[in-house]
Amino acid sequence: MGEVIVSAYAAPSATEPLAPTAVERRDPGPHDVQIHIEYAGICHSDIHTARSEWGPARYPVVPGHEIAGTVTAVGPDVTKYQVGDRVGVGCFVDSCRECDACKAGEEQYCTKGMIGTYNSVGRDGEPTQGGYSTHIVVDENYVCRIPDGVDLAHAAPLLCAGITLYSPLKHWNAGPGKKVAIVGLGGLGHMGVKIAHALGAEVTVLSQSLKKMEDGLRLGADHYYATSDPDTFKALRGKFDLIINTVSANLDMSRYFGMLALDGTLVEVGLPEHPVPVRVFDLTRNRRSFAGSNIGGIAQTQEMLDFCAEHGLGAEIEVISADRINEAYERVIASDVRYRFVIDTSTLPAVAQ
């Protein structure tokens, strides 16, 4: 299979629904891996991008950076993969490879900017198009192996949601003896609970209400509190070593800083639309830190996939057909999903020959 036109779903503009289309995938180069995409997760980032909420998108744009599939062809110099391997692709497909971040295996912080899986421009000068399609061609160095212990459909969201939580949990040493709180039990938060529990931390969910409490405890939380109850912030004052906020809404940060123990850290992985006001006094008290984290490098993403396989972890998913993508977008916005939509790409319309 050489350079080819493949089926996809794309956003034609910021205001139109996604619709079937066709995109051209390049012929695999010397180090390229060609992947038959079997499942693609729907991330809230896809919606923000498709609707130009994070700046103008390059239309038409094919979203999707939670990609799981099988290798169908490899370039002549590929050494890491062979046809038939189960693989995944996450939020980026290239980087400069020369800066300190890239050399350290932290390609997500590439000084020149990583090349996003979609809505970016590749080294060939062509716009990148993502996982809502049947095939993709990616350099072998930006592909991860999906262990046999993880089902492909459940693995797809790990390539963004999974690594987005695994990276800060590892960086801030979540584990036995550490008290960790996850704010929000959605697509990101539910993976945070699973991973933090598997790492051995004492895990608390901080959610707006108690309606998902049964789920939270089933997924590995030791405690579950409603943030709509003012007593929650009193009861948990000074309790946590690490709080990871997965919510993209603007919260009253003072109340959450108040939950941090001495030398505790609050890490943002949700991306609120508006600036977040911070009172420095809240940080100087108890020597608290306020930080951010953005996915993980390729090596750490592979480490996360291996960890999930070892501990039997995968995303909680609802598999949908391609013709339900627009409906799924509305349900994501309404928080009506437990906990990740995954597109079965075999349902994409065939390309007219």
Helix and strand arrangement:
Elements: E1 4-10, E2 19-25, E3 32-41, H1 44-50, E4 67-74, E5 86-89, E6 92-94, H2 100-103, E7 115-116, E8 135-139, E9 144-145, H3 152-155, H4 161-171, E10 179-183, H5 189-199, E11 202-207, H6 213-219, E12 223-226, H7 230-235, E13 240-245, H8 253-257, E14 260-268, H9 280-284, E15 289-292, H10 298-311, E16 317-320, H11 325-333, E17 340-344
Parallel strand pairs: 10-11, 10-13, 11-12, 13-14, 14-15, 16-17
Antiparallel strand pairs: 1-2, 3-4, 3-8, 3-17, 4-5, 5-9, 6-7
What does this structure look like?
The chain is α/β, with parallel strands linked by helices and 353 residues long. The protein has eleven helices and 17 strands. Strands 3, 4, 5, 8, 9, 16 and 17 form a seven-stranded mixed β-sheet that branches. A six-stranded parallel β-sheet has the order 12-11-10-13-14-15, covered by helices on one side. β16 (317-320), α11 (325-333) and β17 (340-344) form a beta-alpha-beta unit. The chain is globular, with a radius of gyration of 20 Å. The chain starts with a strand and ends in a 9-residue tail after the last strand. The model has no long low-confidence stretch (mean pLDDT 95).
Short description:
With 353 residues, the chain is an alpha/beta fold.
